[in-house]
Amino acid sequence: MAELAPWKEAGLGRQLRRVDAVDGPRLQHDGREWLAFASNDYLGLAGHPALREAAQRAVQTWGTGSAASRLISGSLAPHHQLEECIAAWKQTPAALAFATGHAAALGTIPALVGSGDIVIVDKLVHACCIDAARLSGARLRVFRHNDLNDLEAKLQWADSQRHDAHDASSRRSPRILVVAESVYSMDGDLAPLRDMVGLKNRHGAWLMLDEAHAAGLFGERRSGLAEAFGVAESIEVHLGTLGKAVGSAGGYIAGSRALVDLLVNRARSFVYSTAPPPAQAVAAQTGIELITGPEGVARCERLWALVDLLKNELIRAGWTPGLVRSAIIPLIVGAESRAVEVSTQLRNAGLWVPAIRYPTVARGAARLRLTLTAEHTRDDLKALATALASLTPPGTTTAS
Ligand SMILES: *Cc1c(COP(=O)(O)O)cnc(C)c1O
User: Fold this and answer.
1) Residue 354: CB within 6 Å of ligand 1?
2) By alpha-carbon position, which residue is closest to atom 1 of ligand 1?
3) CA of 101 to the centre of ligand 1 (A)
């Protein structure tokens, strides 16, 4: 199509690469085996025997499809059991499951805010939260990534707008919603959650926290960074996915009973969409049960040991990563074309490492995004470091 030509010329073209089999981080593609550092299945639960068996049993019991929206054909027990499990995990009064995390965001933000309200998002929040904020019709403001001074300035502005607003037709006062991630998906850095919570409280704003890359990995129950930082109770809207560390698919919102009641009535991606397959819900529940038990402890310990090892291997290979705080390690390359070139060179060594480019990240901030899972071995990391050591890291001038 003509509209793709300039896109492709700029080195931004994308295509699907078919995978014929998956075994943890090992993939079959194009007739050979690849070692991947690209999965968000951080704990390796997507292939876990307990999840496979639970899903198979659910298919035997419930069949494959859910037949309709949960408001139409009846709301199947596996979805309720999953929601009780999520609420217990996140320690909130209630939770609601969606078909995907993307659908959860898209349904929730427009249910919470509309014209007359204000949404303030971190510059680097996920595309689904940006789209949802735009869809809501609320006024949208963006604060610089993890910059609390800038967030405060935006909150002060929002406060002044709120006090000016005299909308007699509205049945409630204007709402201010702050949206942030706890672990950022393309940088792997952490939000300053404690201070952020204090700030939004002082301004009477709500916080929606996207824990897509933190749930399963942080905190004593491994429910996310909000738990680890001791601020979970002060967060109004917890957003997460069941497709990453949890090892299944789906998304959720956790929070008050009033919030969930609102979403059951008003979140259009929930109301006007067929419920996800019961087997998806049952697999997700099994994943959360593993995460909160001894298996979760063991898998997290293994993952963090691998993260540490990879950090050291990268430094030894001359590819010094920034501060590593999560299972996402970006190697910033800069130019889009260079990122693709390095990714291709790694591919020639049988390594599957995605080049992340605009528009997923800013122009000129292209990177290799390495993710680790508990199923990687120490030898896998050494193989990656060896391949990287033979390539020129960014910012290296080859003096002769
Ligand atoms: C993956 C992701 C989502 C969407 O979740 P899905 O279940 O994959 O639709 C939302 N937010 C962030 C930060 C994500 O990385």
Assistant:
1) no
2) 212
3) 5
Q: Of 48, 90, 102, 213, which one is the catalytic site residue? A: 213
Extract the tokens encoding 364. Answer: 């000129």
Nearest in space to 374 (alpha carbons), one of 46, 136, 108: 46
* Residue bearing tokens 């217990």: 88
Q: Does the Cβ of 243 fall within 6 Å of ligand 1?
A: yes
**252: buried, middle or exposed (CB in 10 Å: 19+, 13-18, 0-12)?**
buried
φ and ψ of 178, to 5 deg = -100, 135
Nearest protein CA to atom 5 of ligand 1, as residue: 101
pLDDT mean values, one per 10 residues, the chain (400 residues): 83 87 96 97 98 98 97 97 98 98 98 97 98 98 98 96 66 91 96 98 98 98 98 98 98 98 98 98 98 98 98 93 93 91 94 93 93 98 96 63
Catalytic residue status for 40: yes
Choosing from 90, 154, 200, 244, the catalytic residue is: 244
Q: 102 catalytic, yes or no?
A: no
In this structure, what token pair is assigned to residue 269? 């991606």
Q: What is the model's pTM?
A: 0.95
